[in-house]
Amino acid sequence: MHTDTxxxxxxxxxxxxxxxxxANQTLALAxxxxxxxxxxxDQTIVAxxxxxxxxxxxxxxxxxxxxxxxxxxxxxxxxxxxxxxxxILGHRRVMLIGTLVFVVSSVLCGCVPKGEFAQTxxxxxxxxxxxxxxLMFPAALAVVVAVFxxxxxxxxxxxxxGLSGALTAVGPLLGGWLTAWTWRAIFWVNVPIxxxxxxxxxxxxxxxxxxxxxxxxPGAVLVAVGMGLSVLGFQQASSWxxxxxxxxxxxxxxxxxxxxFCRYELRVAEPLIKLSVFRDRAFxxxxxxxxFAMLAFVxxxxxxxxxxxVSLSASPNQAALYLLYFxxxxxxxxxxxxxxxxxxxxxxxxxxxxxLGAVGxxxxxxxxxxxxxxxxxxxxxxxxxxxxxxLAPASTDAVNRSIGASYGEVTGIxxxxxxxxxxxxxxVFGTILTHVTTDRVVETLTSKGVxxxxxxxxxxxxxxxxxxxxxxQEPTGGGRVATLMRDSMDAVRLDFAEANxxxxxxxxxxxxxxxxxxxxxxxxxxxxDSPTEPSAQPGPGRRGADG
Length: 547
Description:
The chain has about 550 residues and is an all-alpha fold. The protein folds into 2 domains: about 20-215 and about 270-440 and about 495-530, MFS general substrate transporter like domains (Growth Hormone, Chain: A, Up-down Bundle); about 215-270. Helices cover about 75% and strands about 0% of the residues. The protein has 17 helices and 2 strands. The chain has helices at about 25-55, 60-90, 90-110, 120-145, 150-165, 170-180, 185-190, 190-205, 215-240, 245-265, 280-310, 315-345, 345-365, 375-400, 405-445, 450-465, 480-520, and strands at about 525, 530. The chain has a two-stranded antiparallel sheet. A hairpin with a 2-residue loop joins strand 1 (about 525) and strand 2 (about 530). The relative contact order is 0.13.
């Protein structure tokens, strides 16, 4: 349990303004919401437009997966660096720099030329988009934390996480509409949003705070290499195989580098991440809950969209509406989670959210093979409600436990954990989906009389079609094999739905593990400047955290 420790004058720390130092809190929150909404929208908008991107640029499906994951990987690799730079250079300044990097990268993504260099171009600038987001997000979150006093911070951050997260729903809807014009517009749409964010930030008169410390460059390199290598191994396991030396060299090598990073951070005088914050059991539990929840939260955008377009033969707009069921539950429950946090602490919200999420994903997985989009909405909404309930409480509780450390450092930790988990989730579940789809499709095609060689070729094409139009991936040619292939597509779509069941059951298991972790939370609350027991805060509606 933390005690209130005043900053050491010689440490370079600054006093936190109790009421925002004269900043307009409403405008500051609105500016940060507009800024970070771009990062959330871009997590889903590309999944909807992927078939059009693949067709026009002639990308390989593995290349398209890298376009999706390069963004998340850069977020994970550079988030701690973004949080640290925010402390050293100033939260407002780094937010502005990150926004500019993000929007310039977005424009360049939309301007990708056709030809052999298209795939490399798109992956590079998706990665720099992630770098911009990694600079922007921790700085924006630190601004919100700094301008709101602790007694109002719970609801402010609940609005920040809930509304910005709910804006992810705009990604599919906007993506479906813009793709009908040109898929390039899904990147260009970030320009007006960034302009609004920058104008509101200027009007809010946000005070600048900074810490005069050195940047831990070796630590930044180690964490980026460790996360990059490990995610590379998981991502490439679908093509390299789980028995490949290269696969395990990347995974194990990445984890070893991360272990070296942790050991180095404990010894350096001014580390990139102050790992001492993990001595707080509540903070550690918050991180574990976020890690396992994020294995499902971000990947579900991609896999649900792909399932809708492949197994349900949905258009991009219809797939967007399918995802909307999830976001309706998420948006409503996120505000409920903020109220529970303010009144009873993080533990009851995390326990309820993880339980509802596990049940929702399991029921959703069970219904996938019915191939009826509108029959699945209660389970998608339940899964979304579970994530919405736990996300803001776990994130806010972790941030509030940064007493003795800076908010930029702690938000860097929380968001690094979240995005690293999301990148791993995309990679691992993508590998599972590819292998299971391949096996099921081979069985289906051979049982219908397709020769084994053609069945294996077709199965690989269908498995790779998770980022494109499955019909466009069918083998060409005429005669009996082509006829059998066309006649088998209904069964193949069911095979793909069954493969997705493995993914969604995996997400349910991840939420189940998060539920077990939530039980380890001590139940203390952060009120004022120090954690307290829930029972120590009398008043209407305030009950014990065990509830």
